[in-house]
């Protein structure tokens, strides 16, 4: 049975528009003009227990609105949304016991309290029995290396330390679903790797379903077997990263390091030259028109080559094209 069902979900916001100038402001008091923003315009997806799904899209596409509806904070204008058979905004108390939410830009911990006291408060709020709370807390403290941080007030933590504490806080009540909104934003390389490893671990070992919203494509490549791309309020693509690539382009790239920096003599039939600097050449070619083996044979027959390799276009490029197509 699917754990999350979203069908034809719509959410519109009516925004009061202010007219410019003092007269405009006075006129707005008497007669307000409104503008409607269709943040979600028919979103559909199903997520099974234990999936780790990336939810990506350009700014303003509707990601946060979806997550807010799924967490019961917002009520949609129309459509169906059920999680564990419950409607999130109608059965909020039961629903929040099943979910954990982490926002990279905000903390759910109490700013002036030591971390451990925030944990205790969350235990009270979620009414977690003492024995299971202690067991889960000890596991999380060990896995996320939190022991040295427990007595430190949250405002004194670095961003990376705070994120590790926020992840623990979201999991203390052992939810079966975790919503992560930009969990690696602003983190240094080592902290990013630690957070990613932890997300992977709670998904594979504990079977927690994870919905990850991010603009960091390295997060997606490292973690997600499935990616949903949203644009203009609807899902543009739902599948593996390979599906996403196939939907956007068949293009592949040949990268050639030349023995002589300015020795490039490309032929028009080899594809499009998209980079040529410091002896490195990057060609975008269509493997259906010219096979990689044939292209390599032609290039090496006519050039002195130090090194070469074939790769897919960077995922950022693929995603940007998908966003542009969707827009
Ligand atoms: N409370 C609100 N009132 C009015 N408009 C809103 C509100 N929340 C979101 N919107 C609008 O709905 C659209 C979708 O916003 P949303 O925050 O869901 O996008 P997003 O994909 O999360 O963007 P980002 O990547 O920038 O966080 C935008 O046009 C936004 O301005």
UniProtKB/TrEMBL annotation:
Domain of life from the UniProt record = Bacteria
Name of this protein:
ATP-binding cassette domain-containing protein
Say yes or no: keyword Ubl conjugation present: no
Q: Which GO terms describe its molecular function?
A: ATP binding
Q: Which UniProt keywords apply?
A: ATP-binding, Nucleotide-binding, Transport
The species is Natronomicrosphaera hydrolytica
- Ranges for domain ABC transporter: 24-257
Q: Which SMART domains match?
A: AAA
